[in-house]
Amino acid sequence: MGPSPTLYHYRNPVTQEAVVSLLPPDHPEMVCLQAGEHDTETKFGILGILAAIFWFPLGVGLCILDRRVKCRRCGQVIEDGMCG
What we know:
The protein is α+β, with helices and mostly antiparallel strands. The chain contains three helices and five strands. The protein folds into two domains: about 1-35, no CATH class; about 40-84, no CATH class.
């Protein structure tokens, strides 16, 4: 039998839930967990941008539906657009 893996104990600051993980504290996913929020980045899809241009002002709503929100730190997709 080899050595047992190291377990790290965290507390989610938003829900106060105890979390046990194999990921160390400097891992990007654990940094987001400890901060209690993601560092988000929003990108709009080409179909949404074209809709916003050609069918203004109704196309702006389609552009908002075709957005992708992703965390810069851990890479988790928070919201994927309709066309994503």
